């Protein structure tokens, strides 16, 4: 019997942390997606939510010692059951909480309200998960190095959870369940939700009312089917930037209606509509298109490469609110378009504008794209319509002369009830053109590039202001003072590492906790950087994001396992992390392919696991060291991830993030070397 | 280092960090020409009450009103936007929209930052919801604005885009000067202004398009920071003052598009402003904070137009959408088409000296 009990205990000590990891990964992925949609797909909310996640989990973990009954192994199954119940319950918290901050359905929340909703929604699960980790360590006390073992199993569980989500998206998409879908449909009052689909690039909803079908991408209005003034204006203006285009490619434009409007005006041209999200073609009534319209889903560079040179290439995408979107407004992408399509082609890019009513953020966004275009093309012309159009080419086709535009409009029979001579005259009205051009020119920003996504930063600024929380001058002035930023944040990170080491000095040697903080931060920032590199160099991300967690966690698991088998100095893997960051700096501007980035991510996880596994050795038997280790690990990832991953990237560039990861690893080595290493509490 | 020293050091660095950040981001103080605000009452303790609009903001030293552009500085209220337009365009008058006021002419349209209604569906939020220091204005005196209108051949000057009531002093001075130079003036407003300033302003205003955003007070309270009654008062006052008036209603799904509300609104316009007051139903597009709501279904706009015509209004239009006849003017008597419009394009205008050429009916407007 005794033997059975021991193996049962051992089984539990392995199974529970695995389940904990699995549940955490699934809850996090599902919940963050829903939160993102509820908060208007504002990316900063995701960063904030992830950091809050780690913060509350840390708090849960720290409060473990205040609940003596949890230290009995038997409660663990109940804790995990409570965690899974919380995970489902949390989903249903989002809508009522959001509603309590706004009397109006479908209205964007202010940024403080978003943060409050995110925090309140994730608290229950986080606290339970945080409590569960030290409880698992407690349950595994009889094992050799319980903390390491639990960490190992939890990482494995997270990898498994991420993989499950990746493989069975439909199963884990809450809108596929009527209970949740009915609850979710209320946000589209007074419309009726027709359907809701989760795809690789986010969610697509369609609603209907009084015969009008409307589309929403990630919870934000994306267009209506049928009659559409903005689309008519867009299509008309775009088509007049080329005298007689026969081969037209439009990237995006399906939901906004411009694809339909283009096709209606150009029945004799071949129009290729390229959308990244394959699901769009499944749900959109594509049978309205004639034979001259070719629909292609996939990564635009890959799709374009397979096409013959086009005469008119239209980029009709939402403003670059992510690094992935920013890519299609970058100098590198424009360069590709020019190389592939030759000197006869005209490129037209749509951006937020506003008929002469430019906010500084919009002006800066336009400026960053204008600069990128000017680096590649000889002619760059602004069409200051409701949506600003930038026409660029190595020929003289682009024009801001209303007479030429009207002549082309009439020759190609583009005019209709809305797009007509009067509208053209109004758009190209000399005063508007002059003032808008001056306002854009005055905006201080850099040109938009793959690794320096200035347009992404300006879009963030724009969104922040829309939500009533303009980024303070402190932040917007930082790009001009990078050194200052690095000194301050570097000092801040060092200080936090020291603070954690000091706080847990009775439970863990400062050299250990300080180093864990830095290594965890460095590895997490590198993971974020790799994800971003994948987005900008390869383009596909939602497809791979789950794989990223899987590979990172697999690497970590492997690293921790190895650390328990052989002995080596912790400094080695940390130094390797720093070296890897340096190497990455050199190859950042080359594409390593999706597999390359996922493989590198695995290596980062491995090095993190090797360092952290080794750092937790010999301290595992100490009571409560589970908490100390867990908090140091989480704090490192949360703080450094937010500072160096989420904040630096839009402000400066990707290389700065990578460099920061390297510096963090160096601080980690420093901590491991110079901080006190004695047994804790002595 | 003992524990206390260490703690002090940590606290010091934590405090210094934000201070350094602040210094790094500080921009040099901008010198701007402030203008004393009118319609204010001084209160004890350096406080000021602004009586320009129905918010009646009571502001302590350093505080700014709901409109973001009027600030109490040491006991005196200042307009922060006098002479500081942020948008300046030479628009077709149809764009305001004004359909019965000098069709086919151009109007020099301008706005400063600021608004006192803060609608969460604002279609111009980038400038209306901005603080004066977050936008880059053009410096222009009233004389320069009027000169620019002359130079551009504008028939009128429009105060529009944001809420002109909040740049009252600037608007009034421009309008006064414009009249001296024989240029017409147009007010495009949400109508949230008090009676006294309104009557002073009305002396220099020829035409107005007032947004009657809904006909329920709850709508105003949920979607804006204002109330319904003051807007109705403004409409009546403008009528009394002899300003030529058109009314616009932005039809927002689920907010103000209940057929009964539309009928009530139309009835009120007829009874208080006259059956020949042009009424525009405009299509909503998701903007600013209301981005999870679909645009107005075209059927809804058409139904609103029919309902308002049924209530007895003579000229009802739909805007922001392409329709067969929703933008055209028909003779209320013989029902013949008098003015054709396609977007901003004014097609054939058959009016003869403001009268229907077919039946002789006088058509309300300033032609
Ligand atoms: S004009 Fe501005 S400051 Fe004056 S009462 Fe209205 S909102 Fe307040
Ligand atoms: Zn007649």
Task: Note the main sheet of chain B.
Answer: 8 strands, mixed
Gap between N and C termini of chain B: 87 Å
Which consecutive residue ranges of chain B, at least 5 long each, have pLDDT under 50? 26-32
Q: Tell the overall outline of chain A.
A: globular
The assigned structural class of chain A equals: alpha/beta
Q: Total number of β-strand segments of chain A? A: 11
User: Count of helices of chain B?
Assistant: 9
User: DSSP strand (E) fraction of chain B?
Assistant: 15-25%
Give the low-pLDDT segments of chain A.
Answer: 1-6, 620-624
Spatial sequence of strands, sheet with the most strands of chain A: 7-6-5-8-9-11-10
Average pLDDT, all residues of chain A: 88
- The helical percent of chain A reads 55-70%
| Radius of gyration computed on alpha carbons of chain B | 24 Å
Quick tags:
heterodimer; A: 682 residues; alpha/beta; seven-stranded mixed beta sheet; globular; disordered N terminus; B: 367 residues; eight-stranded mixed beta sheet; three-stranded antiparallel beta sheet; 17 strands; 21% strand; binds zinc ion
Describe what this molecule looks like in 3D.
- The complex is a heterodimer of chains A (682) and B (367).
- Chain A is of the alpha/beta class and 682 residues long.
- Helix content of chain A is 61%, strand content 10%.
- Chain A has a 7-stranded mixed beta sheet with strand order 7-6-5-8-9-11-10, with helices on both faces. Chain A has a 4-stranded antiparallel beta sheet with strand order 1-2-3-4.
- The longest helix of chain A has 37 residues, at 2-38.
- In chain B, 52% of the residues are buried.
- With 367 residues, chain B is an alpha/beta fold.
- Chain B is 29% helix and 21% strand.
- Chain B has 9 helices and 17 strands.
- In chain B, α5 packs parallel to α7 and α8 packs across α9 (298-310).
- In chain B, the strands form 4 sheets. In chain B, strands 7-8-9-10-11-12-13-14 form an 8-stranded mixed beta sheet. In chain B, strands 1-6-5 form a 3-stranded antiparallel beta sheet, with no helix packed on it. Chain B has a 3-stranded antiparallel beta sheet with strand order 2-3-4, with no helix packed on it.
- Chain B starts with a helix and ends in an 18-residue tail after the last strand.
- At the A-B interface, β3, β4, α7, α13 and α15 of A face α1, β7, α2 and α9 of B.
- The complex binds iron/sulfur cluster (SF4) and zinc ion (ZN).
- Residues 331, 333-334, 336, 356, 358-359, 361 of chain B line the site of zinc ion (ZN).
